[in-house]
Amino acid sequence: MENLKKLIEEISSRKPKNYEQMKIEDISKELHNTMEFEQNVLKKINLFENNHQDEDLIKYAKMICRNIIERETILIQETYLKKIDEQYLNSK
pTM of the full predicted structure? Predict the structure, then answer.
Protein backbone atom coordinates (compact mmCIF):
# COMPACT_ATOMS: atom_id res chain seq x y z
CA MET A 1 0.00 0.00 0.00
CA GLU A 2 2.96 2.31 0.60
CA ASN A 3 3.97 2.02 -3.07
CA LEU A 4 0.45 2.96 -4.12
CA LYS A 5 0.60 6.07 -1.94
CA LYS A 6 3.96 6.99 -3.50
CA LEU A 7 2.44 6.61 -6.95
CA ILE A 8 -0.46 8.89 -5.99
CA GLU A 9 2.04 11.44 -4.72
CA GLU A 10 4.01 11.19 -7.97
CA ILE A 11 0.85 11.77 -10.00
CA SER A 12 -0.32 14.68 -7.84
CA SER A 13 3.03 16.43 -7.93
CA ARG A 14 3.03 16.58 -11.73
CA LYS A 15 2.77 20.21 -12.79
CA PRO A 16 2.22 21.50 -16.32
CA LYS A 17 5.06 23.41 -17.88
CA ASN A 18 4.95 26.76 -19.62
CA TYR A 19 4.11 25.47 -23.09
CA GLU A 20 3.63 28.98 -24.47
CA GLN A 21 7.38 29.54 -24.39
CA MET A 22 8.25 26.25 -26.10
CA LYS A 23 8.82 25.54 -29.76
CA ILE A 24 6.33 23.34 -31.61
CA GLU A 25 8.79 20.44 -31.64
CA ASP A 26 9.24 20.65 -27.88
CA ILE A 27 5.49 20.80 -27.30
CA SER A 28 5.11 17.68 -29.41
CA LYS A 29 7.71 15.92 -27.25
CA GLU A 30 5.86 17.03 -24.12
CA LEU A 31 2.65 15.51 -25.42
CA HIS A 32 4.50 12.28 -26.10
CA ASN A 33 6.04 12.34 -22.61
CA THR A 34 2.65 12.98 -21.02
CA MET A 35 1.08 10.06 -22.82
CA GLU A 36 4.00 7.82 -21.90
CA PHE A 37 3.70 8.90 -18.26
CA GLU A 38 0.00 8.03 -18.30
CA GLN A 39 0.68 4.59 -19.78
CA ASN A 40 3.32 3.84 -17.15
CA VAL A 41 1.08 4.98 -14.32
CA LEU A 42 -1.85 2.91 -15.58
CA LYS A 43 0.40 -0.16 -15.80
CA LYS A 44 1.46 0.35 -12.20
CA ILE A 45 -2.15 0.83 -11.09
CA ASN A 46 -3.05 -2.38 -12.91
CA LEU A 47 -0.38 -4.23 -10.93
CA PHE A 48 -1.84 -2.90 -7.69
CA GLU A 49 -5.29 -4.06 -8.81
CA ASN A 50 -3.95 -7.52 -9.61
CA ASN A 51 -2.42 -7.70 -6.12
CA HIS A 52 -5.83 -6.83 -4.64
CA GLN A 53 -4.65 -3.75 -2.83
CA ASP A 54 -6.92 -1.05 -1.37
CA GLU A 55 -9.75 -0.58 -3.92
CA ASP A 56 -10.61 2.94 -2.80
CA LEU A 57 -7.00 4.05 -3.10
CA ILE A 58 -6.78 2.50 -6.57
CA LYS A 59 -9.95 4.31 -7.67
CA TYR A 60 -8.52 7.55 -6.32
CA ALA A 61 -5.23 6.97 -8.18
CA LYS A 62 -7.11 6.36 -11.43
CA MET A 63 -9.25 9.44 -10.93
CA ILE A 64 -6.38 11.84 -10.24
CA CYS A 65 -4.34 10.32 -13.06
CA ARG A 66 -7.20 10.82 -15.50
CA ASN A 67 -7.88 14.38 -14.30
CA ILE A 68 -4.26 15.56 -14.23
CA ILE A 69 -3.31 13.97 -17.55
CA GLU A 70 -6.49 15.23 -19.22
CA ARG A 71 -5.87 18.78 -18.01
CA GLU A 72 -2.23 18.67 -19.11
CA THR A 73 -3.09 17.16 -22.51
CA ILE A 74 -5.73 19.82 -23.18
CA LEU A 75 -3.27 22.56 -22.30
CA ILE A 76 -0.64 21.08 -24.62
CA GLN A 77 -3.13 20.67 -27.46
CA GLU A 78 -4.44 24.21 -27.15
CA THR A 79 -0.94 25.66 -27.15
CA TYR A 80 0.17 23.40 -30.00
CA LEU A 81 -2.74 24.40 -32.22
CA LYS A 82 -2.32 28.07 -31.38
CA LYS A 83 1.37 27.95 -32.31
CA ILE A 84 0.66 26.12 -35.56
CA ASP A 85 -1.92 28.77 -36.45
CA GLU A 86 0.51 31.57 -35.61
CA GLN A 87 3.55 30.13 -37.35
CA TYR A 88 2.10 28.40 -40.39
CA LEU A 89 -1.46 29.41 -41.16
CA ASN A 90 -1.27 33.14 -40.43
CA SER A 91 2.08 33.54 -42.15
CA LYS A 92 0.51 33.17 -45.62
Answer: 0.82
What's the chain's average pLDDT? 89
Amino acid at 20: E
d(CA 29, CA 34): 9
Q: CA 28, CA 76: separation in Å to the nearest integer? A: 8
Q: How many residues does the chain have?
A: 92
The sign of the torsion formed by the CA atoms of 81, 14, 23, 36 equals negative
| Closest-CA residue to 84 (of 25, 35, 34, 32) | 25
3-state secondary structure the chain: CHHHHHHHHHHHCCCCCCHHHCCHHHHHHHHHHHHHHHHHHHHHHHHHHHCCCCHHHHHHHHHHHHHHHHHHHHHHHHHHHHHHHHHHHCCC
